[in-house]
Write a structure and sequence with these properties.
Blueprint lengths: L1 E4 L9 E5 L2 E5 L2 H6 L9 H9 L15 E2 L4 E5 L5 E5 L16 H18 L7 E4 L4 H12 L6 E6 L11 H10 L3 E6 L2 H14 L8 H12 L5 E3 L4 H5 L16 H9 L21 H11 L6 H27 L4 E3 L5 H9 L2 H5 L5 H7 L5 H4 L9 H4 L3 H12 L1 H6 L4 H9 L12 H14 L3
Parallel strand pairs: 7-8, 7-10, 8-9, 10-11
Antiparallel strand pairs: 1-5, 2-3, 2-4, 5-6
Helix pairs in contact: 3-12, 3-14, 6-7, 7-11, 9-10, 17-20
């Protein structure tokens, strides 16, 4: 009998492929491909998720029909006859608990700070120095502050920036410099040479266990490359937005009746309506149903999470978080032998904030309870700044050699023979590559090109 298990929040991956009389598993999908004997055809349902569910393919599917992944917080038992069963051993409830009755907003912020302090302390344990990926945002800045409070001196902090493109700034060094000065860290500011950018695109794609459309992958890959020359373990602020309602699609869900939750969530999060896929994909790849919308509805229908925002946070923290931000950081850091630890995904902290009233999380433009917890710990200018993102302007605004790389991929004879994307759509996008955006503002051409580049890189 074989037992496989995955951690509660899917911080580490676990892929499996089965054939008669044989089961193989690995922490990387390409490792299974290297062993041969895998059905590498595209999974049509997974393709639908990729194109409509913000490029997330929820477990157990992957983009390839012959590879599956064990879901988070799951123990799988495989018997000698080949049958198997899964047991889910943990799930954040996202309901109000009796033991929290009567807690004030101050009580909640104090509890969150105490839980985060413990989470950071737990992740300090190492035989080597532990650094921090410091973006200059609230989350990573608070991790730095708490490490300083724990007495860690000479803390290595690392920030990355890129040349501006099309009028969009490519760094947030002003805020990361502020935190580095405030807590006297050994700060490393990495301004990426433009000559490194194009090779890094292909290197990042090579490091992806699954196709991941976020341009942050390139940023994390370049950052991890440089950080790995100084330290081998870092803490990161990843996960705070998903568990504490930091994204801009959460406020519109406040007050939405629970029965309208799936519809409201799909309107603010999914890339495009199901019907719009007919403009992009060739007819043989179109489905007569909308599996992505059905997936959202199924999650919203599960017991608990009586508030629409609670249901959205439950879905994002157990699915989207796992197969987008967490996987992104793990893939890109592990490509350089760098271990990234994520204190905001400490399961006790996640359980606590799942029970926190939604209005406290939505306060102050999002992550309100965390912002209140941070008062007096990090400078107010960092707490009150607009939310930032890991900017990689050269990919958000495709031009020059980056557009040439995309054009080469989507017009390659292999892409044409694959018959996945309508040629007229590709041609129109190459003429005007930056106007069409997904619902959340991603470059629509990059989404399609990234999938094609990932498949070509693996010879599929």
């Amino acid at each position: 009998m074989l037992t496989l298990g995955r951690d509660r929040l899917g911080i580490k991956p676990l892929y499996v492929t089965e054939a008669p009389g044989r089961l193989r598993f690995a922490s990387s999908l390409p490792a299974l491909l290297a062993g041969g004997g895998v059905d590498t055809s595209l999974d049509p349902v997974a393709l639908h998720h990729y194109m409509s569910f913000h490029s997330v393919v929820p477990a157990p599917r992957t983009i390839l029909a012959g590879v599956r992944k064990v879901p988070p917080a799951t123990v799988r038992t495989i018997r000698p006859d080949g049958t198997s069963s899964d047991r889910v051993y943990w799930r954040p409830e996202h309901v109000r608990r009796p033991e929290h009755a009567g807690m004030s907003a101050r009580d909640w912020s104090d509890a969150v700070l105490a839980a985060l302090r413990l989470a950071v302390r737990r992740r300090m344990v190492a035989d080597v120095p532990v650094g921090v990926l410091l973006s200059g945002g609230l989350d990573s800045s608070l991790v730095v502050a708490l490490l300083a409070r724990e007495g860690q001196s000479g803390l290595g902090t690392f920030s990355v920036g890129f040349p501006a493109t099309a009028g969009e700034a490519g760094d947030e060094f002003g805020f990361s410099d502020l935190i580095a000065r405030e807590f006297a860290t050994d700060h490393h500011k990495i301004l990426v040479d433009p000559a490194r950018m194009l090779p890094a695109v292909d290197a990042a794609i090579g490091a992806m266990a699954e196709p991941m459309v976020s341009h942050d992958c390139v940023a994390f890959h370049l950052l991890a490359e440089d950080v790995s020359t100084s330290v081998t373990v870092v803490q990161s602020g990843q996960g705070a937005d998903e568990v504490l309602a930091g994204y801009d699609w959460y406020p519109p869900l406040a007050g939405v009746p629970r029965e309208r939750g799936p519809e409201a969530y799909a309107a603010v999060f999914t890339d495009r309506p199901h019907a719009e896929l007919a403009e992009i994909l060739e007819p043989e790849w179109l489905l007569d149903h909308d599996p992505s919308r059905a997936f959202v509805a199924e999650h919203f229908a599960a017991p608990g999470a009586d508030d629409t925002l609670d249901a959205a946070l439950r879905l994002d923290s157990t699915v989207m978080l796992v197969d987008d931000p967490v996987k992104r950081v793990d893939n890109m850091t592990m490509a350089w032998g760098l271990e990234a630890r994520v204190p905001f995904l400490d399961h006790e902290l996640v359980e606590l904030v799942a029970a926190c009233p939604p209005e406290l999380k939505l306060a102050h433009g999002g992550k309100g309870v965390l912002k209140e917890a941070a008062r007096g710990v990090v400078p107010d200018s960092v707490i009150d700044r607009p939310k930032g993102y890991f900017p990689v302007p050269a990919i958000r605004h495709l031009e020059g050699p980056f557009l040439d790389r995309v054009r080469d991929a989507v017009t390659d004879p292999v892409a044409k023979a694959r018959g996945l994307v309508r040629r007229e759509w590709v041609d129109a996008m190459l003429v005007d590559p930056n106007t069409r955006r997904t619902n959340l503002g991603s470059n629509a051409l990059w989404q399609v090109a990234l999938l094609e580049m990932w498949m070509q890189e693996r010879g599929l």
